[in-house]
DNA sequence: CTTATCATTTAGATCGATCTAAACGCACGG
DNA sequence: CCGTGCGTTTAGATCGATCTAAATGATAAG
């Protein structure tokens, strides 16, 4: 039992190999009657197209490489879902790799992707990725899209999100509730998503005529955030509101504050970032700036398809806007702060 | 600027194409001095191995297809992470597809995977997948591993989880707290994971000498579960404890009950399934039966590698045990139930 | 000195498709 | 009747590796 090839199909249909090839590729050159004959033969023999052989002659391979720093994080999983969805619609298969935030592993994966002959790459660069990464891709003629994180100083397509609008709405909401002492809980990682959000915080505060009370860096896990709650609330300059770099920190802190008997929305206002599903499940609900990773994924895929089609098109930076979702964790500043401190 | 081939490497190193081929494949046939020469040439020319060409002659393609029903669900995302991790260690690249619970799409993906010449498939079958699915794979000689869900009546390797241990511990814990009126909240989907967990619930109850109070089906979303809380608590046979098919239902119900002023762990005990990270963040924490999707993913990958290596090996069903994680949402049954109803 | 043995190396066919360029059949106008 | 043009079809070369089977050279044995 050997593999059925185009040649088998062709002889079974009484045409040449070349004609059969034209049929599988939906070429307009082939006549309707011939096409029907060949298609019947294909069905009858159970022919399976061999993309591997095709890729050798033709340039395209109908695959794209996707490198994600951490699949365990639902945020990236949804991003991946968006990428997969859009690429699949365009007929490209996704070859997946998980860099685990290791730039070295990431380099290895890029090599493997090249060996597989992918038509292009979508990468959310691992921490510590160097500019060289993007330059190499350009040198190799490999279409590349960065997503969610952008390597400064590089020139490549980018699909990300713009925290500005959501952040401004969040700060405005807090301001309207009377908050003036607002702290920022940052993550300890140092990629562009971090600095972008922090910068947008500073901008939004300035727009409301406020100075940040403090910026505190915390490792981005539920546990560390939870444990950091006492330290944050007991600092001399006690905040009345906190904005967190993401919902991992926001939810962790939510729980940490509750443990202390400090009720979010009443004793302190709390804002997260990403609006994960669970933000709506804690009590009170965690107000959060919604970002839409699925849409960002689709956007990244579209940029890649465009780049594959037109390698010399101008470099694009596209961002998805964010918006604030108010929930119970934000409320009016308490008139008698001393009562809380007692 | 054309592509560097093995022939270029060979002539640059002063050997034949065949020898160069042996070097890239780490064959022991080639001498040390020659190997060094060829490797130097490869580095100098920036040679990239062409897996597409190799796959045409050789059988293996160093890729595996993975089809998941829903990437947006963190549970599957972690499963995927486990699969990816183990396959990558073995040098196989993952071609990913998201069936979105559509059997038709799933069929399409299997075809695409065949066209790509994958060495094997790991599939968590979409709802409504027919037995034919597994039979086809066997007929095609395509190594196949089912994971998390098992098509009844089929014979193929399977990597899943065994809810029995965790379920028994959960029921035992509730029993020890004095609970006798225990209801089960099931999902509305009908695959094997559903029936397995439900069956393990019945077994565990029987082992404690109890009869299930009721089994209620709910669509598996946070929102529906939350909305169903009143109906569940107001039924004539009011439960003192609830076990949920997964944490999506568990967390949704946790919030729904809280909304009613029914406090989990005090007024009713609540157990989830999967032990997602967020189970520890709500207040009180949601007790949950821990399953380890990452390990299941690794297990599925191992099974596939074994099957690829030995196509005729006996069919294996492997399961990862589960265990109960107690948290605040489980507590002693209240002596005066009427007080709650007031 | 010849022959057998062993470890290396290699030429040439081959995998299954696509590409190029030419050939084919047919209708039409001169 | 011939040349031209158009829509189809095709033979043969080709992509870049691997495979088979044979050649090569060095060493050991007879």
Task: Provide key terms for this protein.
17% strand, 3 domains, DNA-binding, Rossmann fold, homodimer, alpha/beta, 45% helix, 434 Repressor (Amino-terminal Domain)
Concise overview:
The first copy, chain A, is an alpha/beta fold and 342 residues long. Chain A contains 13 helices and twelve strands.
Number of strands of chain A: 12
State the secondary-structure class of chain A. Answer: alpha/beta
How far the N terminus sits from the C terminus of chain A, by CA atoms, comes to 83 Å
- In CATH terms, what is the fold-level topology of the largest domain in chain A? Rossmann fold
Largest interface: A-B, 47 and 48 residues
Low-confidence stretches of chain A: 336-342
Helix content of chain A: 40-55%
**Which sequence of strands runs across the widest sheet of chain A?**
2-1-3-4-5-11
CATH top level label of the largest domain in chain A: Alpha Beta
How are helices and strands ordered from N to C of chain A?
HHHHEHEHEHEEHEHEHEHEEHEEH
Supply the CATH superfamily name of the largest domain in chain A. Response regulator
Shape assignment of chain A: elongated
How many helices of chain A?
13
Task: Report on the biggest sheet of chain A.
Answer: 6 strands, parallel
CATH architecture of the largest domain in chain A: 3-Layer(aba) Sandwich
What is the number of domains of chain A?
A: 3
Beta-strand content of chain A: 15-25%
GO molecular function (chains A, B): DNA-binding transcription factor activity; transcription cis-regulatory region binding
Protein name (chains A, B): Substrate-binding domain-containing protein
Domain HTH lacI-type (chains A, B): 4-58
InterPro entries (chains A, B): HTH_LacI, LacI/GalR-like_sensor, Lambda_DNA-bd_dom_sf, Peripla_BP_I
């Amino acid at each position: 039992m050997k593999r059925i090839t185009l040649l088998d199909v062709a002889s079974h249909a009484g045409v040449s190999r070349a004609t059969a090839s034209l049929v599988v590729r939906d070429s307009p050159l082939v006549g309707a009657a011939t096409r029907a004959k060949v298609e019947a033969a294909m069905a009858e023999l159970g022919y399976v197209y061999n993309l591997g052989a095709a890729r050798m002659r033709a340039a395209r391979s109908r695959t794209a490489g996707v490198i994600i720093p951490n699949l365990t994080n639902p945020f990236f999983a949804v991003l991946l879902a968006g990428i997969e969805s859009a690429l699949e619609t365009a007929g490209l298969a996704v070859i997946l790799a998980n860099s685990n935030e290791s730039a070295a592993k990431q380099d290895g994966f890029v090599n493997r992707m090249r060996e597989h002959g992918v038509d292009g790459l979508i990468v959310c660069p691992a921490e510590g990725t160097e500019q060289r990464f993007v330059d190499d891709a350009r040198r190799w003629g490999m279409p590349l899209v960065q997503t969610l994180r952008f390597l400064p100083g590089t020139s490549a397509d980018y699909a990300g999100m713009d925290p500005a609008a959501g952040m401004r709405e969040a700060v405005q909401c807090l301001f309207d509730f009377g908050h003036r002492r607002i702290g920022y809980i940052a993550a300890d990682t140092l990629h562009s998503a971090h600095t972008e959000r922090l910068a947008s915080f500073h901008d939004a505060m300035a727009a409301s005529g406020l100075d940040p009370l403090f910026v505190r860096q915390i490792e981005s896990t539920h546990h560390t955030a939870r444990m950091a709650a006492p330290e944050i609330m007991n600092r001399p300059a006690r905040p009345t509101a906190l904005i967190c770099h993401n919902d991992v920190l926001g939810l962790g802190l939510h729980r940490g504050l509750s443990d202390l008997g400090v009720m979010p929305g009443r004793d302190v206002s709390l804002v997260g970032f990403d609006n994960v599903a669970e933000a709506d499940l804690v009590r009170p609900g965690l107000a959060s700036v919604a970002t839409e990773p699925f849409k960002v994924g689709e956007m990244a895929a579209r940029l890649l398809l465009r780049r594959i089609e037109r390698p010399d098109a101008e470099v694009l930076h596209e961002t998805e806007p964010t918006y604030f979702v108010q929930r119970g964790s934000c409320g009016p500043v308490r008139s008698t702060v001393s009562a809380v401190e007692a």
